[in-house]
Specification:
Elements: H1 14-42, H2 53-66, H3 69-82, H4 88-103, H5 107-120, H6 127-140, H7 150-165, H8 170-199, H9 203-216, H10 222-237, H11 240-253, H12 260-263
Helix pairs in contact: 2-3, 3-4, 4-5, 5-6, 6-7, 6-8, 7-8, 8-9, 8-10, 9-10, 10-11
Length: 274
Amino acid sequence: MIWPMPGRIHRRGRGERGDRRGNNWAVRCGVLVAGVLVACGGGPREPAPVIPADTLYTQAMRAYRRGDCTRAREAFRQLADGLPANAPPLAEAWYYQAECDYADRLYLEASRQFRRVADEYGAHPLAADALLRAGDAQAELWKDPELDPEYGHTAMTTYQELAARFPDSRAAARAGPKARRLMDMVADKEYRTGLFYRRLKAYDSAILYFRSVVADYPQSRSAPRALLKLVEIYRILQYAEERRETCEHLHRYYPQAAGLAQACPPAADTTGAR
């Protein structure tokens, strides 16, 4: 780089002082530019310090326990990037990243990350908890029974998988009530759809939905109600045999169902007469 040469020292007029100031400004700018050039490509940079994995893990967990998911997620990401594939600590890094996603209501991302832990580290102590939390995240995506229950079905399937893979785990015990709650929600949605067709007197469609409730969710709260509605429709349609069989099913499997005595008395007339 060519530096501007200082002029001779003597009294200067206004214009010369202006030139001197311009020269000094150029010198300063030249130094700055040179500094940038050196920093960008003039010499080798110092390598960034390598943070040991155990230090990163400690920092990440400390941030996670403080509820600082922004820092925790970044530390876990750095930890995961520096670990070899299939390293056990990788499961923990993914798991707690997923917990941060869940806390931030990023339920779809959380469910995928939890699922990844359970699938790729099935023997890890966190595998059962990861399946439980995957189901929890999927269930959060279906809170309104009026919406498509796809995520509800997925959550139920995940809880069932947990019970099959880790039957004696605490996670499986915790999943049981959650699975039953989802089952009741899905069954209730089917039952309400059957009621909709019943009000329209579209009896064939109503029968399909009520039968679906009984066949797919026999342990749900809606199952005996669906059977009672079937008895009602069969009476209207004068389907005596179907009505008799449905009453027998109710007496055998749901003897405490509300309204059973009125719909199916022991000496009920099953000839179809109204």
